[in-house]
Amino acid sequence: MAGLPFKVVWDTEMAKTPKGKMPYIEDGEKVIADSGIIIDYLKATYGDVLDAHLSPKEKAVTLALPAFWMSICTGRSFTSGGLPRRDGRPPKLNIFGGFPPRYA
User: Fold this and answer.
1) What Cα–Cα distance (Å) separates residue 84 from each residue in 48, 75, 92, 95?
2) Which of 58, 74, 90, 102 is most exposed, with minimal Cβ within 10 Å?
3) What is the rounded end-to-end Cα distance, in angstroms, of the chain?
4) What is this structure's pTM?
């Protein structure tokens, strides 16, 4: 998608990987592990061609939404009493009622 040359290598021996897990990349002599660090490294090294067209607001949504979604999926955002619901809808529908955002 970014136009960078790459080669996929399937390695099932996790002990050989930098952090004992996937993903990781090798860029010349550098070995970088952890998907977030990999993305930051690629953006800093080769430019941010994938997100270049996004506004600051859209970039903020792309950063916040995965963490927000993970908190919903793992139930971390729910207290024993649940979330307040003024309209009687279940919590997830109440939370995602405004998603996806509409951009004019």
Assistant:
1) 39, 15, 11, 10
2) 102
3) 25
4) 0.53
